[in-house]
Amino acid sequence: MKQIWSIAATTLGEAIRRRVLLVILLVGVVFIAIAPGLGVLSARSETTVLRSMLLGIIQMTSAVIAVVLTVYMIPNEIERRTIYTILSKPVQRWQFLLGKYFGAVLSLAVMMALMTGVLCIAYWIQQGYNAQGLQDLLKAPVMFFVQMCLLAAIGLFFSTFVSPLVNFFLSGGLYLLGSTFSLLFQDMLANPNAPGVAKMIATVVNVIVPNFAYYNIQNPIINPQVVIQDEFQNYVKIMAYGVAYIGALLVAGILIFDRREV
Amino acid sequence: MTRKSKLPLILLVVFALTQAVIGRVVVFPVWVKDYKPKGNQANAGGLSPDQLLLSLAGFRELIAGILWVRADSFFDTGNYDAVLPLIRLVTILDPHQIDVYATGMWHIGYNFTDEDQRSDRRYIPSALALGKEGANNNKETYEMFFETGWMWYHKVDDDYAQAVKWFEDAHERPDIIQARKNLLSMAYFRAGELEKGIGLLNKLYEEAVVAENKADATYGNTQVRETIENNLDTHLVRFVQRGEWARLQDAQNGTNTFEQGDYDTLPPHDVGFSARVTVEAPRAIRVEGTWNVLPIGSRIRIVLRDEDYPNAVPAGMQWDMTDEVTLDPPKNVTFMQDQLFIRNRRFDRRIDMSKDVTMYPFTKDKYVVEFYYNPRSAPPHLQDKFGYTGIGFTDSNFLDLQARNGERVMYTKLELTRDQLLQRGEWADRNAVVQTKNFDPGKRVGSQQDIINIPNLRAKS
For strand B269-270 and strand B393-394, is the pairing parallel, antiparallel, or unpaired? Predict the structure, then answer.
């Protein structure tokens, strides 16, 4: 356990020093800061667009950070040959991989916390102090964090056997697919004219592909008139799904990395 | 863990199966019910790739806002055709934008017109479908229920039971504003549910009195109370003078006081409808005829449509025939609807459909020209004679109890062919003329004794 946390802490330190991540973070923070000025684009209420924009920016920025952070993790260690130094110590490969993953998760937590802090300030300035409104708004970044942990697990999984560039497109593509497929899948299920075979194939894909859309809980937050019962239970279920999927990805990554020549 | 250990494989299978079961069986139904954005993403095909990407990435409301601002600018420049697809996209992306739904409904239902400002009725099913979709997506507020009811009440102006249904749904929502509650009573009257209409006015009056007597009452509360009181008084007087109270008592007691009474609706007035349609030029017809009602306010509906128009009913169509909002109604069918205004007990109107060939394509061989009058839609001063439901209304030739399920309406139709309307073939150098059997070219108005003495609400001497 000690080894895992040591690697995680080192990974966090590296991530905070990486300029590319800091630039992405800065862009996200700037966008969040100027978002209140775009509330005029709403025909209904500025609050709606403001919430939508703030949450959208956090989500997109976090996704880019998660992918960029993880695609280089293993290849960089191999390329810089630092992995030999680490693995020559009493550290198992699975411990190394888990340490890297938890380091990525910690990095995401720090960066997303910073963006969420700016979001709170921007929302406060625009809307005035509204504890309930802020509390509701903060549910989304929490679920986005779980979503990004899942995305980081995908990035790390692919980084055990593909190059960073390929991994970037694979992870990014899977994120887009996972964010959109459930919408199309549900529409297809509801469509009585869709062929049965297509529905069956779609169901299989729906089970295999990580469903990032499950974490997009912002709809009832942006439109608060939607009443949800057992909200806490829902969040627990959605998180359990993420934990199981992350577990599968990490174990698969360990299996591949364990057999790989470095 | 060693390479030979089976634990990782077992863990992998367990995790994979767990995520599959939780994801598909536990989370997916929850997500569909509570978190899935409403609206069909597959229909957002009008978005550019970047807009689609942004909307799928969580910026739906932002993209919807930008599109709405664009739509507004198209309104300002009069580019109405460009507005509709944008409105549809906004409602798909952000189905809680009630203003956009309401504006879209109004735009689809009212603003597609020909040169003479006749609205294209082929769009109305789509407008109603949009209203229905908006109401379903915003069930917590009265607004789209009211707007959809209004379209039935004002635009369709025929099927008042539908207006009642939608207004009643609006009334069930707690956020309905006081000033909009009255309309349900008007819909009740036109739907023939007179007791309900009076009952609702009574209830609204009591509520208004309570609101007016509250400590924080405003001048607005007084205005509302006075308006309802005035409505209630007027309808109570009319209720009695039109004999509705007597008819109600007769129905309850098995008596026959209405027939023996001196009510304004007795005896029923024969409106003596007759009509002639002349094709004066290709796609242009002249419609003339008689209607023995002197006071201004009568408007007879005229419909010229394909004989086999889909889902047609006499002088109309099944307006709620679809739940699909299509911005491209069938372009190969013709449905013209207009009003014939009565002046001096006659009408004479030229209807030119030649300037808008996409609205009136005339692709079918046979057409019908329908004439329709429903006393339920008549203004109050004419209803003082005809009654709320037409009990004081008749036509010796064209009274029809079938066209609207037992309602007393005037209905008749004439037939024309495509060659006649387009003046082709044997009609190339002739004007086709079709007329009702009672049309008399020499008698262009009803006789003097046909004039109605419109009753007034003052006490009889």
Answer: parallel
